[in-house]
Amino acid sequence: MEFHPHEIRVLKGLAEDQKETWYTPASIETLSGLNVDAISRAVSWLTTKGLVEASSEVRQEISLDKEGVDYRKSGLPERRLIKKIGKGCSIEELKEKSDPQL
What we know:
The protein is mostly helical. Helices cover 58% and strands 0% of the residues. The protein starts with a helix and ends in a 5-residue tail after the last helix.
């Protein structure tokens, strides 16, 4: 059976580690020195050859960008505006109180 160089690097990395029974692409990246795309291909080939078992899990992560972090700290512009208005005020009063960035 012939092996691609990436398959060899993945297998060597797993054989040298032997601490886990399952690995993430990131942990194999550390062990093999390959990027995640190369690891994915190598693991697919190794699975086809019956040398490893692989499963995938889809995970969705959501994070705030810079604007979201700023709004988390200072509040949404709409809420800040409502807070300034309070129980009511004229447009002129609102312009005086208002932050130009609102």
